[in-house]
Design goal:
Elements: E1 2-6, H1 10-18, E2 22-26, H2 29-33, H3 40-50, E3 54-58, H4 64-77, E4 81-86, H5 89-100, E5 105-110, H6 113-122, E6 126-129, H7 131-136, H8 141-154, E7 160-163, H9 169-177, E8 182-185, H10 187-194, H11 197-212
Parallel strand pairs: 1-2, 1-8, 2-3, 3-4, 4-5, 5-6, 6-7, 7-8
Helix pairs in contact: 1-3, 4-5
The structure holds erythose-4-phosphate.
Pfam families: TAL_FSA
Protein name: Probable transaldolase
Enzyme class: transferase
């Protein structure tokens, strides 16, 4: 499973990219809205030049025509832009058009396996099942990852699964075990993945022993 970062914040993206673990970036309108005074297209240009992998940029329009017009403009920003499209009838139609034009797509707001299968058949490059938001309403987000991974494997579907709406490290481990190709993770959760109390204690003990031995 590969790691994407789920943010439009350039400092957080740089920090994660420097760790050598980052294969891509996802943004959404809420994440972009948090970046005050920033031009959306300018920020995308900056991100795409920093990270060589897929950078998802979401369309705002809800009709087929609006999505196609916006998506084509987004795709012109850089070759590594992936157009993020919501899971609707118009969205599926737009995915088909983008697929015919070799524009990569990420179908977002996936909450059941049928939606993922439909998106894949329309030609989506990626589908994004939202784990955390399903958990929030008492459903099992991780079970959805298992179902989609199984269906795609049975039918030899090349669309990649991005585990999205990740809230904590257990989501990351389980998404990997259940066959997600990618997890898109918020910056604070990426930092949390590094931490273990025994690692910290181990470092302290090694340093204390070294100091006590008076070795140079
Ligand atoms: C990523 O593509 C999604 O937009 C994101 O993971 C949603 O996360 P949230 O449910 O925490 O807003």
């Amino acid at each position: 499973m590969k790691f994407f970062i789920d943010t439009a914040n350039i400092d957080d993206i740089k920090e994660a990219y420097d760790l050598g673990i980052l294969s891509g970036v996802t943004t959404n309108p809420s994440l972009v809205a948090k970046e005050k005074g920033v031009d959306f297209h300018e920020r995308l240009k900056e991100i795409t030049s920093l990270v060589p992998g897929s950078v998802s940029a979401e369309v705002i329009g809800t009709s087929y025509e609006e999505m196609v017009e916006e998506g084509r403009e987004l795709a012109k920003i850089a070759p590594n832009i992936t157009v993020k499209v919501p899971m609707t009838l118009d969205g599926l139609k737009a995915v088909k058009t983008f697929s015919d034009e070799n524009i990569k797509t990420n179908v977002t707001l996936i909450f059941n396996a049928n939606q993922a299968l439909l998106a894949a058949r329309a030609g989506a490059t990626y589908v994004s099942p939202f784990l955390g938001r399903l958990d929030d309403i008492g459903q099992d987000g991780l079970e959805l990852i298992s179902q989609v991974a199984q269906i795609f494997a049975i039918h030899e579907i090349p669309t990649e699964i991005i585990a999205a709406s990740i809230r904590h490290p257990v989501h990351v481990t389980e998404a990997a075990l259940r066959g997600a190709h990618i997890a898109t993770i918020p910056p604070n959760v990426i930092k949390g993945l590094v931490k273990h109390p025994l690692t910290d204690q181990g470092i302290e003990k090694f340093l204390a022993d070294w100091e006590a031995s008076n070795k140079k």
